[in-house]
Amino acid sequence: MTAAVTIEKFTSLTPSEFFYRNKEIAGFSNPSRALYQTVRELVENALDATDAHGILPIIKVSIKRDRDNERDNVFSVTVEDNGIGIPPGHIPSAFGQLLYSSKYVLRQTRGMFGLGAKMAVLYGQVTTGKPVEVISAPINSRRIYYFKIRIDIKNNKPIILERGYYSKTNSWHGTIVKVYLEGDWSRSKSKIYEYLRRTAVIAPYAELVFSDPDGNIVYFERSTTKMPSPPREVKPHPYGVDLEMMKMMLQLTTAENLFDFLIREFQCVGEVTARNILNNAGLPPTANPHRLTLEDVDRLVRTIKKMRDIKPPRAYHLSYLGEEIIETGLNAILRPEFVAAVTRKPSVYEGHAFVVEVGLAYGGGIKASEKPQLLRYANKIPLLYDEGSDVSFKIVNEEIDWGYYGVSFPAPLVVLVHICSTKIPYKGVGKESIADVPEIEKEIISAIREVARRLKLYLSKKRKEIEEAEKAVTIAKYIPEVAQALAKIVDSINPDNIESRLLKLLNQKLKAFKIKSVNEVVVSIE
What we know:
Layout: H1 15-21, H2 31-48, E1 58-65, E2 74-80, H3 91-96, H4 116-128, E3 132-137, E4 143-152, E5 157-167, E6 174-182, H5 185-202, E7 207-211, E8 217-220, H6 243-252, H7 258-265, H8 271-281, H9 294-306, H10 323-334, E9 338-343, E10 347-349, E11 352-362, E12 373-378, E13 381-383, H11 391-399, E14 413-421, H12 438-489, H13 495-511, H14 518-525
Parallel strand pairs: 1-7, 12-14
Antiparallel strand pairs: 1-2, 2-6, 3-4, 3-6, 4-5, 7-8, 9-11, 10-11, 11-14, 12-13
Helix pairs in contact: 2-4, 2-5, 5-10, 7-8, 8-9, 11-12, 12-13, 12-14
C-alpha cells in the first residue's frame, strides 16, 4: 500500500504579518516590556524630529489609564514634540506601514529600521483594537493635520479611519502621537523612569515632562542650550559596500561610465583612487555601469576590499555629543563631585565610521556600589536591557583595573559609554546590547582609560588634601602648649599673640591645598 504524499503549501508574509507573529524580537514580548518599548520608540522619534534639525527639544510624555475600557491594564501613551512635523502625505505610511521611514539614508539617527513606532501601533491594535491617533503641524504649514490610522496586517498598508485639518491659531509645530495598548505599569514603571532619567543625561539640551498614571509629574529641566551638530547625509564608503549593494548602485546610477560612477557615487574616491581601483580590477574606465556582468561586479568589490590606500570614511554623517554636553548632563542629573568626558576621533569598522564617547562621574550624589554603575548609549539611545551581554559591560568590569586608578569598591562611580554610527552592531533586533567588535572594543578601552587617568589625579590630590588636613588638626592641638612654652622662655611675648601667629601660618599652608581654615577642618573631622 502506497503512503499518501503530503504536498507542502508555500506562501509569503508581508513585513507586518511577520512582526505580528514575532512581536518579541522587536521588544514587544509582554505587557510590561511593550509599555516601556512604546515610550522609548515614540520619544526617540520625537528627539530625532527636533535635535537632528537644530531645534531645542521640548518633549511631553503622558501615560494614562484608559477609563473607557473595562480592563484596568489598558493605557494610552501620548508623546508630543516641537519638531519639524510630518507632511500629511506621509503620515498614513509613517504610522501604518512597517519598514517605511525617512531613516533609510547614510546618516546617523536614533532608529535604524523604520520599525519602532509602527510596532507600537501594531501591538496596540492587536491588544486593544484601537487605532493610533496622530496630530501633525509641519514647520512651514499653516494647517494642523489629524489622522486615525490602523494597519492592514495582511497587506502591510495603512487604513485611514479619520482624517482632517484645521488652521493654526499659534506658532506651534511638531507631532503628537497617541497609542492605546495593553500594558503593565507596576512592572514597567522603574524602567520607564530610568529611561527618561538617562535620556536627560545624554540630552541635557532637552526639556522632558513626564506624567504617569498615578498622577505624578516629573520635569527634567534643560541645563544647556548647546546642541550636537546635526548629522548630514553622505555617500557610502567603498569599504562598506558588498556585492548586492554594488549591483543596486550600478543599476540606479546616472553616470555614463565606470570611472565617473566611482567618483560620483562614493565618498573618499577621487580620480587617482578610481583609476587605481579599475586598474587593479582589470575593468575599463569607459565601461557602461549598467552592462557589467556579475563576474565584473564581484571582481570590482573584491578588489576594493583588498585595497589599503583608500581614505577612511568621513564622520559628517555622525552626530556625536562632545565632552561639554556629556559633562553637563552628568553634572545636572547625578550631581557628582568629579566629572570627566572624552570624545575619541572617528574610527572605522567594515567601512563604517563610528565615534566612541565616554563620561565618568565620581562621588557627590552618587551612591556607592560594589561595581561601576554603567550607563550605555547607542546613537543617543539609552540601553537598559541585556546589560551583561554588552561589550561595555565586559570592558568596565573585566578589562579595566580600577584599583590602579585609585578606586576601591564599594565606590560612587558611574561610567557612561556612548557609541554613534550608521551601523551599530546590535546583538538582536531589540537593539539593547552591542556586540564585541574588536575595533569598537579597542576605542572604548582607550576612552575609559583616558578619563580614569584624570580621576586618578583627582583622587591622588584629594588624598593629599586629607593628609594635610589631618596633620593640621594634629599640629593645632599643640599650638596652645607651644605658645605657653615660648612665652616662658621670652617674658616679653604674649602667648595669645604667639598662638594667633602660629594659627595664621598654619592656615596659609592649608590654603595652598584649597583647604578651609584649621578651625573648620577640626570641626569637620570631629
